[in-house]
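Module 6 notes. Inverse folding takes a fixed backbone as the condition and produces residue identities as the prediction. Think of it as a translation problem where the source language is geometry and the target language is the twenty amino acids. Below is one complete input and output pair. Work through it position by position during the lab.
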């Protein structure tokens, strides 16, 4: 069977990594890349460098990785759908809900595989947490907390922290719990002099009653990527920078020292840091999309799921502007 012919448009920060993975992915030939600014980072590996998506389509591709700025996702995505080319589009799916709806509908109507590059889903720590939650190891899930902070990324100019970073936490929270957001209340801050928000704090409710809170900013010298999942049997802590998953079990040994019991609250049980396989999330993401295009069983972030994430992100922004809780 011939290899799939893949293309890549957008050769910026993420595009460079996509080129590296696609250039070495079994069963796939990266036949060309595109960027109106050219291959300034020298990632094409001698492959043709095109100026726009139309030239890349004309080269004859089966699917395309879209890593252009968010404001161009709709234009590029619709061109691919119109040409009958499968696509995976970097997160967020689009700059707003109407554009995301158009993209999801276009790929569905053409019977094409459309996916969104929410790479955090493929982090080994979260993959393990998801599997263990599904098997009931934590029991009922009470709360999901995420912290995502670090320095300002110079690569971002067209969206704020909610759509750039916050969409990671919205997607992974809905996916890891297999619940949807039903309400959000958020506060934002503008500290860098840009037109977009630099900081957001969100409190959300999920469809089964789980409470979530998300602290996201790009104003901190400390880089942190942590997801804390608390349930009836204990707590999972997923550190997606190190891809470590740690389980803090509720204890079964009664604390008879009253003062200590009052201080500690829920009794302490075993603490386990799981030894897990740690493949590169970006490679796993591409392997799954390749398999989906081939009609095999695969775990991709669908465009419908990407659309839901954009809706929640916009609800967070609206909540912050109006000072109200937004129902979804």
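Target side of the pair, the amino acids:
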């Amino acid at each position: 069977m011939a290899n799939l012919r893949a293309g890549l448009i957008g050769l910026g920060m993420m595009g460079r990594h996509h080129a590296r993975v696609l250039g070495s992915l079994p069963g796939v030939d990266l036949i060309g890349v595109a960027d109106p600014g050219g291959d300034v980072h020298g990632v094409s590996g001698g492959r043709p460098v095109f100026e726009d998506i139309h030239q890349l389509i004309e080269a004859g591709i089966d699917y395309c990785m879209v890593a252009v700025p968010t404001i161009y996702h709709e234009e590029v995505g619709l061109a691919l759908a119109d040409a009958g080319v499968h696509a995976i589009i970097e997160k967020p799916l689009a700059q707003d809900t109407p554009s995301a709806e158009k993209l999801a509908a276009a790929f569905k109507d053409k019977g094409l595989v459309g996916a969104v590059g929410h790479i955090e889903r493929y982090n080994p720590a979260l993959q393990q947490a998801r599997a263990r939650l599904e098997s009931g190891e934590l029991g009922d899930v009470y709360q999901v907390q995420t912290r995502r902070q670090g320095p300002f990324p110079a690569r971002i100019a067209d969206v704020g922290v909610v759509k750039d970073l916050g969409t990671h936490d919205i997607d992974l929270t809905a996916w890891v719990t297999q619940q949807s957001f039903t309400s959000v209340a958020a506060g934002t801050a503008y500290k860098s002099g840009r037109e977009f928000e630099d900081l957001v704090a969100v409190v959300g409710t999920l469809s089964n009653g789980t409470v979530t809170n998300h602290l996201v900013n790009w104003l901190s010298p400390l880089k942190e990527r942590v997801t804390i999942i608390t349930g009836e049997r204990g707590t999972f802590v997923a550190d997606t920078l190190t891809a470590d998953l740690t389980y803090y079990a509720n204890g079964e040994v009664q604390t008879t020292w009253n003062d200590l019991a009052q201080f500690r609250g829920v009794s302490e049980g075993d603490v386990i840091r799981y030894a897990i396989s740690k493949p590169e999330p970006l490679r796993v993401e591409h392997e799954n999309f390749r398999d989906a295009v081939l009609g095999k069983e695969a775990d991709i972030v669908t465009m419908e799921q990407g659309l839901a994430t954009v809706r929640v992100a916009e609800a967070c922004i609206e909540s912050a502007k109006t000072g109200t809780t937004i129902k979804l």
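Reference fact for the lab report: Residues 121-278+310-327 form a domain with the Dihydrodipicolinate Reductase; domain 2 fold (CATH 3.30.360.10).
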